[in-house]
Amino acid sequence: MKIQIPTECPCCQYPLEIVNEQLFCRNTACTAQLNKKLEHFAKVLGIKGLGQKSIEKLNLADLTEIFYLDQEDLSNRLGSEKIAEKLLNEIEKSKQASLEVVLASFSIPLIGNTASKKIASVVKSIDEINTETCKLAGLGEKASQNLLVWLATEFKELREFLPFSFNSCTNSSNANEVKAVVCITGKLKSFKTKSEAQQKLESLGYKVVDNITKTTNYLVDEEGKGSTKRKKAEELGIQIINNLLTFIES
User: Fold this and answer.
1) Is 221 part of a structural domain of the chain?
2) I need a surface site. Which of 20, 33, 34, 219 has the fewest CB within 10 A?
3) Would you give the end-to-end CA distance of the chain in angstroms?
């Protein structure tokens, strides 16, 4: 029996598009897509109580509606005053989220926790995100393009209805506390992963970047294979660290 390929989205009846043998619904108003985005949005922002079942009961038309729900309306939709009160408290707390958390919550393709943290480490606010700052943060070409297109289109329509400051807590709160700027290249021997090393350095007040610039103070290169970053560091007279653990201990 030959399988009939569906031509319409089962949720919104929008025509489906075939890309690399996969079916996609391009309708931005599709309820199924919106609910998944809302679920991701709530999870990243840490809004407890706003899971799949609650989202289905709320039947929201846009994620910004989360911030305009009143207790009476919420109680009616969820069928409980106590649950509504708790959810409103969680929503209120989420408004304090920093730029790196907020960006990761919007389901922008290729802009997850890692990419959001990278860009938030080089800008003070969302208004400073551009081609140059994306490059400085070490974002790939496609990720940068996705982010910039989102900022120029969808974000423009959403911004005035969102309660966030869109400021980077990393830059605003720690700008005067940064000991030095460090870049890591190649595999590490003193730490299991680059991520582990980065967390350790940041906990000690260092700023970790992906690219060598004139503002970089140290390059961590434990492999010593003559990478492009090492050559650039040598040209700029940047100090090279052969063992990060020894450097930290000293």
Assistant:
1) yes
2) 20
3) 71
CATH number for position 46: 1.10.150
Q: What is the CA radius of gyration of the chain?
A: 22
The reply to whether 116 and 62 lie within a common domain is no
Phi then psi for 111, rounded to 5 degrees? -110, 80
Nearest-angstrom CA–CA distance, 108 and 126: 14
- 3-state per-residue secondary structure call for the chain: CCCCCCCECCCCCCEEEEECCEEEECCCCCHHHHHHHHHHHHHHHCCCCCCHHHHHHHCCCCHHHHHHCCHHHHHHHHCCHHHHHHHHHHHHHHCCCCHHHHHHHCCCCCCCHHHHHHHHCCCCEHHHCCHHHHHHHCCCHHHHHHHHHHHHCHHHHHHHHCCCCCECHHHHHHCCCCCCEEEEECCCCCCCCHHHHHHHHHHCCCEEECCCCCCCCEEEECCCCCCHHHHHHHHHCCEEECCHHHHHHC
Residue 1 confidence (pLDDT): 67
Is the whole-model pTM more than 0.85?
no
CA-to-CA distance for 58 and 19, rounded, in angstroms?
32
User: Which residue range(s) make up the domain with 157?
Assistant: 110-171
Q: What pLDDT is attached to residue 98?
A: 92
User: Around 144, how many Cα atoms within 13 Å sit in the side-chain half-sphere?
Assistant: 13
For the stretch 160-174, pLDDT in tens is 999 999 998 754 444
- Dist. CA 246–CA 73, nearest whole Å: 59
Number of domains in the chain: 3
pLDDT at 142 over 80: yes
